[in-house]
Each structure stands twice: as structure tokens, then as C-alpha cells.
Amino acid sequence: MMEQLTKREEEVMNKFWEKGEATVKEIIATYPEPRPSRTAISTFVKFLVDKGFLDHKPAGNNGFIYYPLIEREEYCGNNLKNVVQRYFNNSIRGVISTLVRDRKMSDDEVLELINQVIEGNRQEWN
Fold first, then answer.
1. pLDDT classification of 69: cutoffs 50, 70, 90
2. Which parts of the chain are beta strand (E)?
3. pLDDT at position 40
4. What is the domain range of residue 120?
5. What pLDDT, in 10s, does the model give residues 26-59?
6. How far apart are CA 51 and CA 30, in angstroms?
7. Which candidate, 24, 32, 90, places its Cα nearest to that of 63?
8. Is the pLDDT of residue 20 over 60?
């Protein structure tokens, strides 16, 4: 099972997903002023390496270039799956009815989603 990231870990991980690979210094440069400290970002990067989200290769001057081991889509899909299991008892119908009831999806979006599900099922059976 994939580990969950904290809000700050996810924020740093998003920077790597956007850049592909980067040094800690390059990640810090993506933040607006006042930027987080090198120590703070290095700590989050270490956590991400320990959790299996990042790996690294040597760079010049005793530094490292870090790169994602897990794609953003895989992480997001896993989180969505966990939400559906945890809060909706594995019911996609429950998710959709909640979104529709709370007006988070328009009627057109619901129809588009239904058509995508139908098309996806067709492709799985062919």
C-alpha cells in the first residue's frame, strides 16, 4: 500500500512532478519569497526518499539530483481509491450521487462521466 504524504510533503512532491528532476536548490527556487530554508526542503526530500517517492543520483559538488519514482497520476489515483473505499464503501455510485447532490458536477459533466465509464467498460471487454 502506498504511503500517504503530509500536506507539506505533497507540496514538495508536486514541485518534483512539475520539474521532473531537480536539486534541492532548484526546488527552493520555485517558491515565492520568502522561500523555505534549505534545511526544511532537504528534510522533506529525505522523507520523500525514505517513503519511496523520490530517488537520487550524484550531481556535481557533492550534491544530488532527485527524481520521482511514482507518477502523480498513480499517487492521485491511489488517493481517490482510498477515499472511495474509506468513505463510500467502494461505491462509485455513492461518490457520483454525493457530487451531484452537492452540485459539484453539472448535469453535462455527469453524463460525460457516465459515457466515459460505459466506454471504459466496453474497451475492457473487447
1. very high
2. 54-58, 64-68
3. 98
4. 72-125
5. 999 999 999 999 999 999 999 999 999 999 999 8
6. 23
7. 24
8. yes
Which domain-ending residue is among 68, 89, 109?
Answer: 68
Reported pTM: 0.77
Cα separation, 29 vs 35, in Å, equals 8
Question: How far are the Cα atoms of 60, 64, 67, 105, 114 from residue 25, in angstroms, in the given order?
Answer: 13, 10, 14, 40, 45
* CA gap 100, 98 in Å, rounded: 5
**CA of residue 118 relative to chain centroid, distance:** 26
Q: Alpha-carbon distance 80 to 83, whole Å?
A: 5
Which of 62, 58, 79, 86 has its CA nearest to residue 5? 79
Q: Which of 68, 84, 106 is the last residue of a domain?
A: 68
Inter-CA distances, 81 with 3, 54, 73, 124, Å: 13, 22, 12, 19
* 115 & 63 share domain: no
